[in-house]
């Protein structure tokens, strides 16, 4: 998700799907729905490469084929909003599935789908709630690079603090910068870096020059 949290429904997915079959409708007992979280599936001629398919007597309708967005609600639930699907008869179907965290639900449990039928405008909105432990989103945490940087700078800080204390307590050094551990090396460090860069650049330049002269020499030899 955009805020760095991780929502993984892959364990619930099935390929080939669908993973969830026969989800009920809250009004029509003869209607049902098939759903797969991630991988599109096909059911009969009406549902091709779909994620959510509505089954009515003797017919299938594609309700969702692609996810539009994941949005977190104030109560911690997640809305999966799907892109609208427009049928050949210019009827638009759109679905929103609300994911709720429930650690007691291993595979997950659906509430019946509700179809908000706006027949006059040739639209339908389908909504349902799906409770599962896989909706309990987790923080993405720190990346490997971030962890390495934290460890590196922590070690550098410990090195300097321990070195300062050692020089002051055991060696009796009280002046600065002599208290810095290996202060001579750190004083020369910028110049050593400069010398290393100059040496590397000169080596690369010399190598390129030799290659260029060799290529020119071969060209003259061919002439």
TrEMBL record:
Domain of life, per lineage: Eukaryota
Q: Which organism is it from?
A: Pocillopora meandrina
- SUPFAM superfamilies found in the cross-reference section: Mannose 6-phosphate receptor domain
| Entry's Gene Ontology cellular component terms | endosome membrane; Golgi membrane; trans-Golgi network
Give UniProt keywords alphabetically: Disulfide bond, Glycoprotein, Membrane, Signal, Transmembrane, Transmembrane helix, Transport
For the keyword Transmembrane helix, the answer is: yes
User: Where does this one sit in the cell?
Assistant: Endomembrane system
Annotated ranges, domain MRH = 2-138
> What GO biological process, any one, is recorded here?
protein targeting to lysosome
Q: Give me the segments passing through the membrane.
A: 146-166
GO terms for MF: protein domain specific binding
Q: Which Pfam families match?
A: Man-6-P_recep
Identify the PROSITE patterns for this entry. Answer: MRH
InterPro entries per UniProt:
Man-6-P_rcpt, Man-6-P_rcpt_cation_dep, Man6P_isomerase_rcpt-bd_dom_sf, MRH_dom
The protein's name is MRH domain-containing protein
């Amino acid at each position: 998700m955009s805020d760095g949290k991780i929502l993984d429904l892959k364990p619930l997915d099935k390929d080939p799907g669908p993973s969830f079959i026969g989800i009920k409708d809250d009004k029509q007992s003869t209607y049902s729905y098939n759903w797969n979280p991630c991988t599109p599936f096909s059911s009969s001629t009406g549902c091709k490469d779909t994620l959510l398919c509505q089954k009515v007597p003797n017919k299938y309708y594609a309700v969702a084929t692609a996810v539009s967005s994941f949005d977190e609600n104030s109560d911690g639930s997640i809305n999966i909003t799907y892109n609208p699907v427009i049928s050949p008869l210019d009827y638009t179907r759109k679905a929103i599935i609300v994911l709720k965290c429930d650690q007691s639900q291993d595979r997950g449990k659906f509430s019946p789908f509700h179809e908000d039928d706006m027949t006059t405008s040739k639209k339908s909105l389908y909504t349902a709630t799906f409770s599962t432990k896989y909706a309990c989103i987790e923080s993405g945490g720190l990346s490997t690079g971030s962890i390495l940087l934290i460890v590196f700078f922590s070690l550098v800080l410990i090195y300097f603090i321990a070195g300062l204390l050692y020089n002051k307590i055991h060696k009796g050094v009280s002046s600065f910068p002599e208290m810095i551990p290996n202060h001579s090396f750190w004083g020369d460090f910028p110049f050593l870096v400069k010398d290393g860069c100059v040496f590397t650049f000169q080596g690369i330049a010399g190598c390129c020059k030799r290659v260029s002269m060799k290529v020119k020499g071969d060209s003259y030899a061919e002439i």
